[in-house]
Design goal:
The protein is an alpha+beta fold. 31% of the residues lie in helices and 8% in strands. It has a 4-stranded mixed beta sheet, with no helix packed on it. A hairpin with a 5-residue loop joins β3 and β4. The longest helix is centred in the C-terminal third of the chain and has 18 residues. The two termini are 30 Å apart. The mean pLDDT is 87.
């Protein structure tokens, strides 16, 4: 059995979101409900015309809009680091604690790459530990 992108009941994604039953890459994400992806009352999901399940709340699921299943859009994680190292812990805490479990590892990897470039004086490991606690 494949692991759902979002697990557990504490995540802000909708209870009927395809991210709760499918892994990343097996559903699309669009920016809002649309007639192009109608609600199917038979099972409570939205689908594209091709039958691909769709999430319509990217901010809740922690993914940018993308046609991950229907077009094979690759998933990438972007961080918008703050201007000051003093704001880094709070920013990372918010981003990482609001991320879906399927994205957390990608966020950690991206942060480990970008923090030294933006803030060479910052101890990346300590900063990530603080953000994840």
């Amino acid at each position: 059995m494949t692991e759902a992108f979002v697990g557990g009941g504490q995540h802000p994604s909708c209870g009927i979101c395809p991210s709760r039953r499918l892994p990343l890459g097996e559903f699309d994400v669009i920016d809002r409900p649309s007639r192009d992806c109608p609600f199917d009352p038979a099972d409570g999901y939205r689908y594209t015309a091709a039958g691909v399940p769709v999430c319509v709340h990217p901010e809740k699921v922690g993914l940018p809009p993308g046609r991950y299943k229907s077009e094979g859009t690759p998933f990438t994680v972007e961080l918008e680091l703050p201007d000051s190292a003093a704001e880094l812990d709070a920013y990372l805490y918010g981003v990482m604690h609001g991320a879906a479990p399927g994205v957390l590892q990608l966020l950690i990897e991206r942060a480990a790459q970008e923090i030294p470039r933006a803030f060479p004086e910052v101890d990346v490991l300590r900063t990530l530990r603080r953000a994840l606690n």
